[in-house]
């Protein structure tokens, strides 16, 4: 098994000690790349409780499960060791709430760009009530620093629309390591997009979102959900003086991303599977774990046609789950109605066909109501 060279093997014991010392190690799964099936490529980070990267892990500390079955790891290394580039979109909230920190935000972002590798790419998106792509994705770091230096404060906040604009930039990258880094208070009051739409799109496209909540009046829950649901991490900066260190910490996490490869037995079967990555000393309970569902289908992530087929079948199952019980209740209502008519009108003679007709009518009406409820839910 290729495990990224002697440096990783030599560092394994040191990492075991770091895992034992860290009170809450965290494994974050950023991307499951199925475009090169039958091999599956997974990108993830392992950090300590303060956000520091834990590097030097080997196949002894990392275990892969697919649908509950352990999978042999064929390769594991730090992505940067393989010369893999990354594409980062920096998003800046320039609403009125960030006005006092704009200078320190510029400095922190410029420092972040300055530490990117030569083949890395960067884009700059800023937003208030409107979203502006200030710099399209480029490898020109000088242009990136100039773009963040030119940021000016504005008014309201369209955070989730900005996330979608950032994802559109990330989509242009040839790199497989993709991330958004967002500086905001998280208090969106202008977007057409919803938090669920923004996070779901980032997760589907394998883009990790890192958020920095600026100020003391932030919507921490929104920023945390957006980050953690995509394999990123959320940080708080109540004081803008913390921005420089936080941007450096985020840069280190992205630089120290692991690239793991395994080859499952099912190949390209166009079916859903559950992947779980665990980290910890061999033979002991996992110190940290992360899981994600994926479809074993070739293409850039999951093809829309395959995903659409699964969504349609899921919608059909949900509709049946409402229609069938509603039809049964309707049939029961028809039977009760027939019994009530006979009770109230003793001289009324209902033939078996008439009773069956009432039951059928009740089932039809119940199914119709269930179908309406399924359509609106």
Summarize the topology.
Elements: H1 6-21, E1 26-33, E2 40-47, E3 62-66, E4 69-71, E5 73-78, E6 86-93, H2 102-114, E7 121-127, E8 131-138, H3 141-149, H4 159-170, E9 177-184, H5 195-204, E10 207-214, H6 220-228, E11 234-237, H7 243-255, E12 258-262, E13 272-279, E14 288-295, H8 304-344, H9 352-376
Parallel strand pairs: 6-7, 6-9, 9-10, 10-11
Antiparallel strand pairs: 1-2, 2-12, 3-4, 3-13, 5-12, 7-8, 13-14
Helix pairs in contact: 2-3, 2-7, 4-5, 5-6, 8-9
Q: What would your notes on this structure say?
A:
The chain has 9 helices and 14 strands. With 377 residues, it is of the alpha/beta class. Strands 8-7-6-9-10-11 form a 6-stranded mixed sheet, sandwiched between helices. A hairpin with an 8-residue loop joins strand 13 and strand 14 (288-295). Helix 2 (102-114) runs antiparallel to helix 3, helix 2 (102-114) packs parallel to helix 7 (243-255) and helix 5 (195-204) runs parallel beside helix 6. The longest helix is centred in the last third of the chain and has 41 residues, at 304-344. The two termini are 49 Å apart. The relative contact order is 0.15. Mean pLDDT is 84; it is low at 1-22 and 299-312.
Q: Distance N terminus to C terminus?
A: 49 Å
Strand content: 15-25%
Low-confidence stretches at least 5 residues in length (pLDDT < 50)?
1-22, 299-312
Oligomerization state of this entry? Answer: single chain
Q: How would you describe the shape?
A: globular
Q: How many beta-strand runs?
A: 14
Helix content class: 25-40%
Strand order of the largest sheet: 8-7-6-9-10-11
Count of helix runs: 9
What integer value in Å does the Rg equal? 27 Å
Mean pLDDT: 84
Task: Summarize the main sheet.
Answer: 6 strands, mixed
Structural class: alpha/beta
SSE pattern: HEEEEEEHEEHHEHEHEHEEEHH
